[in-house]
Amino acid sequence: MQLETIKSLYLNHKESRLSHRYITNNHIKPILDSLSSQLKFESIGKSVLNDDIYAFKIGFGDKRILMWSQMHGNESTTTKAIFDLTNTLLSNDSSIQHILNGCTLYIIPILNPDGAKAYTRINANEVDLNRDAQNLTQPESLVLKAAFEAFKPHYCYNLHGQRTIFSAGNTNKSATVSFLSPAQDQECTISSNRKIAMEIISVMNDALQKEIPGQVGVYDDAFNLNCVGDTFQSKNIPTILFEAGHFHEDYGREKTRELIYMSYLTSFDYIVNNNVLGDNYEAYLDIPENEKLFLDVIIRDASAGDIGIMFQERLVNNEVVFVPKVDKIEDLKGFYAHKTIQANGLEVLNEQGNAINLGDENVFVIINNEKISLFSK
Question: Is 243 a catalytic residue?
Fold first, then answer.
């Protein structure tokens, strides 16, 4: 599919009822209900707090793709893109008919509804579901395992979000989208199914480079069988980790949402139109590995040194707000920032007019009697 076609589809079918970072069952259930004449969805299990875990199928092709989002409840960008995708696939647009004919998607839009509601990474028992693939101590883990075993996917899409700290390699480029073909053994063997995942990632990377050149990364493939992706890969099912990251001034992750949507459709189109054997995996190895080189704000050359600030995500009245917090006061010449403020050797004061300290939370600082917002806009 041409990138311009995908971008047009996104604009026409973006789900307007979902936005920003806080996405819960209360947000998606009305959408599912409104699509019920076209889409059969069901509750496939319950969370710790007895909330429904929904799933649905789209398509009727032979190639089966299992997708699950919000395993970490506060990672919602891929969920928004799932519903943009769902609207597209239900639209009867001729440009996506081959995907419906070639693939069957089984989608779990929110695996961890309790974590989504509380806006936390963990579930209600304070367990990271992505470290529970072997012990299977949590009901949500058992739901995913049962879906995997019943659906018998040919591909798995493990959908996540990542923090603003990541750079695409050692560059001043934010890792806006990242991927991983997880390892399946301690030796990180590049097995046949890993090669298949790598080949598909390479195709998505090629498409994304046209939109965000230099802003795609991959994660270290250190093996951990407790992670779901590593576990499914070890069962010889090509598995792809998606990580929705930061685009310039896009803390609501709306541009990233579009990029994830592009990745979905690009990958499906490739899977449908090709017998993916992993022969073309080597381009994956050229994608830079993520590094932790970004802060949200750096105030350069303050009298006390460089001041690094990270935005803390907090749920306030069912809305995610960002609270700037002083994370580092030191020489930060090895770090990059999403916003840079020059202090030119002057003292930086907090909102109370006192010297900045580690842990301070402020929405603005005072330099030379001038109030300066720590937000980009």
Answer: yes
Q: What is the DSSP string of 313-373?
A: EEEETTEEEEEEEEEEEE--TT-EEEEEEE-TT--EE-TTSSBP-TT-B-SEEEETTEEEE
Give the tokens for residue 45: 């299990």
Pairing of the two strands 294-302 and 305-316: antiparallel
Could you tell me the two tokens for 147?
A: 């879906």
Instruction: Name the stretches of the chain with pLDDT < 50.
Output: none
Q: Are 163 and 219 in contact (CB under 8 A)?
A: no
pLDDT of amino acid 376: 78
147, 106 contact by CB (below 8 A): yes
Measured CA to CA, the distance from residue 131 to residue 136 in angstroms comes to: 9
Can you name the CATH fold of 3-292? Aminopeptidase (3.40.630)
223 closest CA partner among 239, 210, 203:
239
Identical fold at 3-292 and 294-373? no
The token pair at 358 is 């580690």
Cα separations in angstroms, 97 against 7, 40, 203:
17, 19, 20
Q: Tell me the C-alpha distance between 60 and 323, whole Å.
A: 46
In this structure, the chain runs to a length of 377
User: What DSSP line would sit under 58-116, residue for residue?
Assistant: EE--SEEEEEE--SSTT--HHHHHHHHHHHHHTTT-GGGHHHHHHEEEEEES-S-HHHH
State CA 122 to chain mean position distance: 15
Q: Which of 243, 313, 319, 370 is catalytic?
A: 243
What superfamily does domain 294-373 belong to in CATH? Urease, subunit C, domain 1 (2.30.40.10)
